[in-house]
Amino acid sequence: MLDDRMLDIRGLTLDIHGARPLREIDLVLKKGKSLGVVGESGSGKSLTALSIMGLLPNGAVAQGQALWKGRDLLALTEDQYRTIRGREIAMIFQDPMSSLNPSFTVGFQIDEVLKIKMGIRNAAERRARGLSLLKEVGIPAPEERWNSYPHQMSGGMSQRVSIAMALASEPELLIADEPTTALDVTVQAQILELLRRLIHERHMSMIFVTHDLAVAAKVCDEIAVFYAGVAVEQGPSEMVFETPRHPYTQALLRARPTKIQASSEGRRPRLAAIPGSVPRSTEQIAGCVFASRCEKVMESCFTKRPPVAEGANSRKSRCLLQGDQ
Amino acid sequence: MSRAFKFGQIATTLFGITLVAFFLIRLVPGDPVTLLIGERGASPEAIAELKARIGLDRPLVEQYGLFVWNALKGDLGVSILSGRSVGAEFLERLAATAELGLTALMLATLVGVPLGIFAALHRGRLFDRLSMGLAVSFYSMPIFWWGLMAIVIFSVKLAWLPVSGRIGVEHDVILKSGLLLVDSWLMPGSLAESWAAFKSVIHHLLLPASVLATVPLAVIARMTRSSLLEVLGEDYVRTARAKGLSRFRVVALHALRNALIPVVTVIGLMLGTILTGAILTETIFSWPGLGRWLVSAVLSRDYPVIQGGILMVAVVVLTTSLLVEIFYYFISPRSRGRG
Ligand SMILES: Nc1ncnc2c1ncn2[C@@H]1O[C@H](COP(=O)(O)OP(=O)(O)O)[C@@H](O)[C@H]1O
Ligand SMILES: [Mg+2]
C-alpha cells in the first residue's frame, strides 16, 4: 500500500567532507505510527533525522529520496522547506538545556511559533493557546513558567517546554532525537510516557531516535536498526525484538544488559562480545557493513552489497542470508 | 563576584594608580621648576623659593601623602604651569576627548558590527578574508601612521578636511556642555549659523575620529564575527531553524541577540583603548583633549596635572567598565542567575 506511507526514505546517502556517514538508508514511516530508530552512537541516527528536517551541516551532500507524502524533501528549496519544517514536521533534540534560546523567555519562544507558523494574530489568543500547551505537557504553574528563562528550569522541564513548542505548530510528524538521553532516570520515564500519550491523543506520527532497543520497542510500533550508516533491519517492534532477522540485531539483543543491570538505565548497547569494531564513516565498503564482525559471514558478504529483502508483515532487512530465503 | 569584593578591587586599583602616577614621573630627570625658570638663568635661591612655595622641598613621602589626602577630599591641586585647578582643567579636556572618543567608538561600532556579521555569514569567502585582513592591518599599523596618512590624503592632497582643531575660528560657540556637537546648537545666533557651526564640528571630527576608530573597529569586527560564528553552531540556533523560522529571523534575532552580548562588553572595554589612542591622535591632530594635556604636562613635568590627570582618567575608565558590567547584567538573562 503506497497510501499509508507518510515518509518513505529511499537510498539516502550522505557525504560530508570525504566521509559517508549514511549509506543508502531505507526507512518507511506509516501514517499515525511511531517508528523507533535504534543504533549505537555514530550510526547515523541524528543525521538521518536532520536530513528529514533539511538541517544538514554545511558541506553535506545528500543523495536518494525522502518522500514526504509523495514530495521529495531532498529536492526542496529553502523557501519550500519552511512550509514543512516546524509546520508539518517538528523536532525535539537530545540536550533540552542547550536547545532553548537562553536570551528569550519560554513564552516568547512558544509565542513566535503560534504567531509566525500558525498565523494567530491575536496576542491574547496566542498566550491562552501557549499556556494550554504548557499544561498539556505537564508543566505546573504555566503562568509562571511563561515568563521564565531557560536557565531557570531543570532539564526535564526544558524538554517539556521543547515538546510544547514542537506541538504548537500541530505537526503531523514529531521527530524526537534521543529526547531522554540527557535526563535523570526518573524523568526519562515521565518524558517517554508523555510522548506516548501525546502522539496517541493527537494522532501524530513519531520518529523516535534512541540507542536503547528495549525503550524503542516499548514506545514504538515499528523499529529500524542502524549500523554504521545503514538501516540493517526494520519491522514491527515486537517481531524485531523477539525474532531479529539481521545478525547485527541478533548480536545486539544478546549483548543487552540483563534485567537487573537494565534497571540502571541509560546504558548504551555495547558489542563487547563481538570482536572487531564499527567501520569508520570514511571507510569504503563494497559489501555489507557488518561483514567484518558477523558470525554468519559468507564470502560474498565482502563483495556484494545486500539489497533490501522484504518479508512478511512488512519486515525488511539488508542481509544476503535473508535474500536467499 | 560580590559587591564588596568589586568595591575593594576598584579601591586597590586606584591606590596602585596613585603610586605609579606619583612616583614614576619623579623618576624621570628634570623637575618643573627648573624647566619653568631654570633656563632663564634664575638664581638658585629663586628656584629654591619657588620649590618651597609649591611644596616640592618636602620629603617625597609627605608629598605623596598630601596628594592622596587632598585627592580623597576632592582636591587635585593646581597646575604649576597655568595655576588653574587640575580638576577644572580635567573636566574641560574630558569633554573634548569624550566628543572625539565617543564619536570614534560610535563609528567603530556602526562599521565594525555589520562588518563582522557580514564576514561571519560569508565565512571563508573573499569578502570575509578581505575584511578580516583589513581588520588585522587596522589593528597592527600604528595609529601614528594612519593619522599621517589620513592627513596627507584628505587634508593635504584632497583638501577635504581640516588638519587640526575642533571647529573653524569663525564660529562663536560658547562652551556649555563642552561637547561642541551640542554647544553649536546652544550658541546665540540664527539656526543657519548653528548649522554651519555644527557642520564645521563634524568636519573637524571626521579625520581624528576615523583614525582613532581603527583599532576598536578591528577588534569589534573580529569579535562580532567570531562570536556570531560560535553562536550559529549552538543547539538553540538549530532549534530556531527546526521551528521553520526564516533565515533572517534565525540570524538577526535568535543568533545575534546572543552573539552581541560579548560584543557589547568589548565595546565597553574599548573605552580604555580609546583613551590611550586619544593621547596619540590628539597630538597628531592638535586636539585640545586629555591626551594632549597630559603629554604637555609630562613634557613640562607639571606634577599635579600628571598625577591628578592620570588618577582621573583611571576613575573614568573604571567607572565605565563598571557601567558596562551593569549593562551586561541586564542584557544577559543567564548572568542574572536563578530565580
Ligand atoms: N557535521 C558533521 N561533519 C562530519 N561528520 C559528521 C557530522 N555530524 C556527524 N558526523 C559523523 O556522522 C556519523 C553519524 O553521526 P550521527 O548521525 O550524529 O550519529 P548518531 O546520532 O547515530 O549518534 C558519525 O560518525 C559522525 O562523526
Ligand atoms: Mg545522535
Structure description:
The complex is a heterodimer of chains A (325) and B (339). Chain A has 325 residues and is α/β, with parallel strands linked by helices. Chain A has a domain at 5-88 and 171-257 and 271-324: Rossmann fold (3-Layer(aba) Sandwich). Chain A has 13 helices and twelve strands. In chain A, the strands form two sheets. Chain A has an eight-stranded mixed beta sheet, with helices on both faces. Chain A has a four-stranded antiparallel beta sheet with strand order 2-1-4-5, with helices on one face. In chain A, β7 (173-177), α8 (185-202) and β8 (205-210) form a beta-alpha-beta unit. Chain A starts with a strand and ends with a helix. Mean pLDDT of chain A is 90; it is low at 259-266. By secondary structure, chain B is mainly alpha-helical. Chain B has a domain at 99-289 and 322-338: Orthogonal Bundle (MetI-like fold), CATH 1.10.3720. Chain B is built from 13 helices and no strands. Chain B has helices at 3-27, 32-37, 44-54, 60-72, 86-121, 126-140, 143-157, 180-186, 191-232, 235-242, 247-284, 290-299, 303-331. In chain B, α5 (86-121) packs across α9 (191-232) and α11 packs parallel to α12 (290-299). The longest helix of chain B is centred in the middle third of the chain and has 42 residues, at 191-232. The relative contact order of chain B is 0.14. Chains A and B meet through α2 and α4 of A and α10 and α11 of B. Bound molecules: adenosine-5'-diphosphate and magnesium ion.
